[in-house]
Specification:
Length: about 110
């Protein structure tokens, strides 16, 4: 192995220093604009995060409500592939009235994940 001839690349370090110098010069020349723009950018970022988290909460609630079915006889949630329609629920109720288990009914309907 030839460890004595390693090339040191300092271009990244130089580019970083140049960028910091440019940023500092811009800050020195534009403090009044930055003071006005910073709170606006902060408010936009906060609103964006709020909207994203609200959308995530709604999506999680949808999955919890519509893509899970609770079986009280065994105290278990069944994970579903799709939201059950009213027709599906009528079919489930008629089969449950005949004494079949919810898990078997959902399996026969190919509704389980």
């Amino acid at each position: 192995m030839n460890n004595g001839n390693r090339v040191i690349d300092i271009t990244k370090d130089l580019k970083r220093k140049e960028m910091l110098i440019k940023l500092q010069n811009w800050w020195d020349n534009n403090k009044q604009y930055a003071a006005v723009v910073a709170p606006i950018i902060g408010a936009v970022v906060i609103k964006s995060i709020s909207a994203i988290s609200k959308g995530h909460k709604i999506q999680t609630e949808y999955k919890s409500k519509d893509l899970r079915c609770y079986d009280a006889s065994i105290g278990h949630y069944w994970e579903l592939r799709r939201k059950l329609t009213n027709q599906d629920w009528l079919y489930i109720n008629s089969r449950k009235a005949r004494g079949e288990s919810l898990g078997d009914i959902l399996k026969d309907m190919n509704a389980l994940k």
